Amino acid sequence: MRKLRPLLICATLSVILSGCATSAGRCFQELFEPASKGQEALAAGLTSYEEGDYADAAKNLKRAIARGLTRQQSAGAHKHLAFINCASEREAQCRREFRNALALDPAMELAPSEAGHPIWGPIFRSLKAAGQRPDGVNERAAQRSGAS
């Protein structure tokens, strides 16, 4: 057993290190990486949003986008900015933020509780439907890739 121990350790390390190129490996790496300034601002913005402080939430969400987030995180930040604008009766800005979110993540859907909202639910659905071709391909994504 003692002779197998170094071999097992090497095999385990090889699996872990080779996993760095996979999504699971990236998740493992992210556990040990400090949050970016964008991620910190995003967390602060979402906390302010949940607490009902929409002015502070909007400020932090915009800061997060400017400081750098992943596409998914940016789409989520834009989605929450849309919610804030819709709730504040700023429909044009609400639509713009939903468009920004959908441009980053065309497959984005609202959670059932979000989709049922009487103000932003219909706005999101109309924008989502407008971006879809009859074959189910997102029109904006197809234009960017050159497909038609």
Largest sheet: none
* Average pLDDT number: 76
Relative strand content: under 5%
CATH fold type of the domain at 37-132: Serine Threonine Protein Phosphatase 5, Tetratricopeptide repeat
Q: Span from first to last CA?
A: 62 Å
Please bin the fraction of helical residues. over 70%
CATH class division of the domain at 37-132: Mainly Alpha
Element-level helix/strand string: HHHHHHHHH
Low-confidence stretches: 10-23, 133-137
From the alpha carbons, calculate the radius of gyration and give it in angstroms: 20 Å
Q: Shape, please?
A: globular
What's the assembly state of these chains?
single chain
Please report the number of helical segments: 9
The overall strand count is 0
CATH-derived architecture of the domain at 37-132: Alpha Horseshoe
Summing up helix and strand content along with how strands pair, one would put the structural category as: mainly alpha
